[in-house]
Amino acid sequence: VASLPELISNKQQNSLRCHMFHHERFFTFLGFEIVNSVFELSHSVSLGKSIKTEFLSRCIGHFCRIGKADHLFSVFIPSFVAKIKTDFVMQRILQKVFSGIPDVFMEGVLTCLFRAWPVRCNLVHMLGDLVLAKPKAKFVILYKLLLVKHYTTYTVPINVISYISKVDPKHMCAVETLGKVLEVWSSSSSIKHTSYEQHRYLTAVILLCVKHVDEISDQKFKDELMLALMSGMKHHLESPDEKVRLLGMLVGEKLTSALHIESGEAKLEFEFTKTEDTNLLLEIFNCHPSLPDQEFYNEQAKLLSSFVEMAKVKQIPLSTKDDVTQESSRNTDKENKTLCDSDDSDDDLIPFDLPQETTFTKTPRPMYIRDCLEGLTENEDREKMEIYLHCVDELIHKNVLATKEVAVELCKVMLNLQNSYSIEEFDVLRRRAITSAVVCNPMQVATYLTGEFYSEHYNLQQRMDILDILVMSAGRMSGISSVPKKAVNEDLDKKTDVSENQTSNMVLDKPWKQIVQERIDKKTRRFGKVEVKKATPIPTADEFGPVAGYFFFPLMASYDLKIRTLDLLGTDTIVLGRLLYALGTILYSAASSMVAHKMSSSLLEFIVPLRSHVEPFVRKACVFCISMAVVSSLAITEELCEDILEAREWLCGVINTDDDSQTRLAALDALRTLDVKARKELGTNNIAT
């Protein structure tokens, strides 16, 4: 029956084209016939006759095996979703049909059924106790669909967990599933060697199990779950990927709350930023699908009727000539009205600047950078600390020469400064001040920061702050930063001078001829294309190139050093990944300098032993470094030929074999960038290998 379309097409040889035997229509028709057969069997049972369902079971299994399940279940599900709720005879017939499916077809049938079944209805009416009666069905439902496969949507795990919780009122099957999934979720090997999408899928399965399991009475099993959870929490919180850490925090909170820990033991609570993934998982955990109502059954009936009758396409009436004329005149009147309104607008009037109210404080603002440094060192009063933090960046730009003398000392104080008073934007102000100090005296301050990065007196957050400060400073000095660069050798004007001269500055910024021409262009209506003159770029001096080596090479000097508070090649992989990203960004900032070639070669050589790292975060950082080396080099086919060829071969291997999907996509983008640049340099369509 399944091969009938091919047999007919081979016999006819296109002499007679019958649309009935097109695959989509043919298998939809077979779906209707299977539905009619089930109704006939139900009628026979009501008459007291015996029935056999083996042929229907084999047909459904074979159709799903050859990939026609979508056409079959698109008719099958709407036909029975409302009927099986009250018709117990049809329930028994369908349960017998699915239990009679051969084991070789079982995986294809159950996978397609759980994907297509609506989440508001439960599959227990159609499948019965199939998961408990047949080992093959249990293997597919509890192992293949939950642990091996993963899907972009959560329809399958919702249907699976709701089904096993209904088929087993004591929830023993759901509790057993929770233990197995939690064991896989807690494994460090699973975290490192599976994609983030699959790990998020396992997290959703755990939350659904916790949601459906009301209470676990076995204390021994509760202890096993807590032991697995604590082990998994350790591996998740040590992961360099922030999204993986968020999944660990979410599961830790919900599972410890569900285990009903005694009052003497504290429950896990985390403060984390909610993302799109965490919001979706929380929605799945907190959402309770409503039972199907009459409106739902009406929608299923409409869906079924759409397969029975062809939809009629209504023709859109064409507009007449009078309608077109009226519409065009209406648009013309609207344009004229808009033009008149624009002539009378007050857009050219300069707004009057109102003076801002200043908050009265007992602590005066510091006037010199040394006074500010002493106040930050004392750290006595919250109000004083907040005022000095807001003033330090302004004082640095106000007197650059004085800042150069105390730049290293200022960085030392700001780097070790603690937010004892919970000041808002404390980290932003601190990083901004240190970055300004680096820009004022880049050679000495960069040497100090790169040396302190491998010191044992700092925690991981301070080391990552050092990397961020070096990256921000490199961006500001090279001119590629999104933050506008201030001229460090210009004194800041006082606020009173700015408010008094604001009106005159707004006018004097542009010549009067340019202002008049802009007003004429604004009032003039032009027909056709208008040539837009591109602004001539203003050349600026490269301040970062001469000092780029002080930012770059010391960071690679002691990466294999193992000290008490830092082990880059061991547990502190998040700092290692951030270090690679910082090196790549600093290299990109120095792309126009003479030392860029040496930096690119050193970076490509530096990442060779790190390219096979077990953490996807580090491997993705290596891909980023290769991209930055390609973009920053002037001639990769001449200067970095051997290193680039080796890196290209590794990128091809990452695309084909890496476990992490994001790393594969990053490697694909890097490979495209490398090939495009190599073709431009060689002037051919192929890369010389």
TrEMBL record:
UniProt domain TELO2 ARM repeat: residue ranges: 150-248
Keywords from the named record: Cytoplasm
SUPFAM superfamilies per the UniProt record, alphabetical: ARM repeat
Residue spans of biased composition, Basic and acidic residues class: 320-340
Record's protein name: Telomere length regulation protein TEL2 homolog
Matching Gene3D superfamilies: Telomere length regulation protein 2, C-terminal domain
Signal peptide (UniProt feature, chain positions): none
Ranges where the record places region Disordered: 319-344
GO molecular function, one term: telomeric DNA binding
Main location as per UniProt: cytoplasm
Annotated GO biological process: 'de novo' cotranslational protein folding
Residue stretches making up the Telomere length regulation protein conserved domain: 366-474
Lineage: superkingdom: Eukaryota
Similarity remark: Belongs to the TEL2 family.
Cell location: Cytoplasm
GO cellular component terms, semicolon-separated: cytosol
Organism: Ciona intestinalis
PANTHER family given in the database record: TELOMERE LENGTH REGULATION PROTEIN TEL2 FAMILY MEMBER, TELOMERE LENGTH REGULATION PROTEIN TEL2 HOMOLOG
